[in-house]
Amino acid sequence: MALSLGQKAGWGLADMGIVVFVIVKQLLILTYMTAFLGVPVGIAGFVTTAVLIFDMITDPLIGYFSDRTQGRYGRRAPWMFIGVLIMAAGMVGLFSAPAGMEMNANLVWVVAFFVLATIGFTMVAIPYGAQSGEITQDPKERSAMTGFRMGFASVGILIGGALIPGLAKSIGYSMAALAVTPLMVGAVWLSLWATRNAPRIEQPATVSLSGMFGLVFANKAFVVLVLLYGVMTLAIAMITAGLPFAALYLIVDSGDTALSGAAAALTTLSLMFAAFVVGSILSQAVWVLLSNRLGKVGALVLGLCLYIVLLYALYMMLPSVNVTAIAGMFVLAGMTNGAYQQIPWAIYPDLMDVTRCDTGAAIEGAFSAIWLFGQKLANAVAPAVLGLTLAAAGWQETTGGVVAQSDTALGALQLSITLIPAGILLVAILGLTLIYRPMARRALA
Fold it and tell me: What sections of the protein cross the membrane (predicted)?
């Protein structure tokens, strides 16, 4: 049965709520701990990484249990319905550390609520990803679903990256997190309602935990794509984690450019994210067209190559007092990021079908868990890499928001958000071209 327009759009809506949490997590946790709780940047990076690595342990379990769930509303809905409440509550608690506590107490508080929030995130994200391979096996419908998903994800990025930092500055981190919880919960719950009559696999999987993941890892093309997507995500996550520092130290508004008023009203960080999202939204149709013309892998490689060029140009421009010029660069960054954002998610459900056709096992939850593993690992490693890089360069933590930094520390920050990510993306390009493409051709033939 073909999906209706409402079902396709409704499925995509959930990602808006999910992405708000992801962006807030990437953008604000490291700066919250270092700039407002007085935690040294190296320790803050290690703590963030440790929690996210713990979170990855839960991925296979949630995937396994969601595949084996049987109920009135299908295998995925119960997990998503409850998980988004846990995710939202954990996020609010994370940014609500009581004033006056010692550093160790602050760390315990942040870790406890960060763990809670990431468990809730997993309960939503793993079943949600599994739905893309479950409610339709039509590649064209999947492309349409992914288009809606990335459109709503862009709105989530805009809210998480452009609105929340400004709110955090004006009303505090805790109130800013609380303000967006209705949107997070509402997006996921409305998505479940919109897809309540969509096709789904009712029968729970009977394969054992080890059997499930044995089948997933037997799909070699999928495993390689997971690893390469993780490499791409590491580059993007380093940029995202470093952007709040860049907005404070490398992009200083001179007050005499076209967007100076917007930078003052939104904060520089919010303006840069708004520009990034505009570029991402503008590029979605372009990447769909290029995927049809060049093939999905060819379009992805082109997008990553353009990303590298742009990062080099950004390296040459920073530090800068011209927020208009830098905002223009971030529009272009959003357009190149559209390839990374959209195309891998349109590829991987097709690889799920290979295993289902070969074995008859409907284990989309297991595939979704492994697919997110590479992404989560990269997001976990990135803050630690950034934190250690800045610490080695002598970065100074503070409880006052901004403190004078040495030229060496600022140079390390500049490299961490430009040339280092560019080098990582080059590794991904080589892997896609030399390893993944030949394997995928054989698997999908």
Answer: 12-33, 39-58, 79-101, 107-126, 147-167, 173-194, 222-251, 263-290, 297-315, 321-340, 377-395, 415-436
